[in-house]
Amino acid sequence: MTAPRPTGVPILRLGDVLVTGLLNELDDTSALAFTAELTERIAADGARGVLIDISRLEIIDSFVARTLTELTTMARLLGARVIVAGMRPAVAITLVELGLRLTGVETALNAEQGLTALGWQRMPHPPGPPGEGRP
Q: Is residue 24 assigned to a domain?
């Protein structure tokens, strides 16, 4: 089996959560490559959660919507929970008007809420001035 072709979409690891974002609209080929790359990373990294930030997207076509639904199902089969964060109101309205359903896809208002839902939390800084071993 060959490795998926890199899509240029960054996939970062924060503990056992993978974080990625769709910065531009994906054509069909890129959407399929992104799905293959992300599922490969879920399996390789043993991720238990995935956050996909779509806040930069102004439009999602039916193929990308279906791809997100399928990606969520694949991730679940691999033991990971997926949350799509940052959907713009116009995108949500368009999906509903077109009759497209993101069945099984969990959403969050923004990336921070999505990460919190996945159980990832920032460590609070202790009080006091920076320095002395503190950032």
A: yes
The answer as to whether 121 is a domain residue is no
Domain total of the chain: 1
Query: In terms of residue numbers, what domain contains 23?
Result: 11-115
Q: pLDDT tens string for the chain (135 positions)?
A: 444 445 678 999 999 999 999 888 888 898 899 999 999 999 999 999 999 999 999 988 888 888 999 999 999 999 999 999 999 999 999 889 888 888 889 999 999 999 999 997 666 666 666 655 555
pTM: 0.82
For every residue of the chain, which 3-state class applies, written as one string?
A: CCCCCCCCCCEEEECCEEEEECCCCCCHHHHHHHHHHHHHHHHHHCCCEEEEECCCCCCCCHHHHHHHHHHHHHHHHCCCEEEEECCCHHHHHHHHHCCCCCCCCEEECCHHHHHHHCCCCCCCCCCCCCECCEC
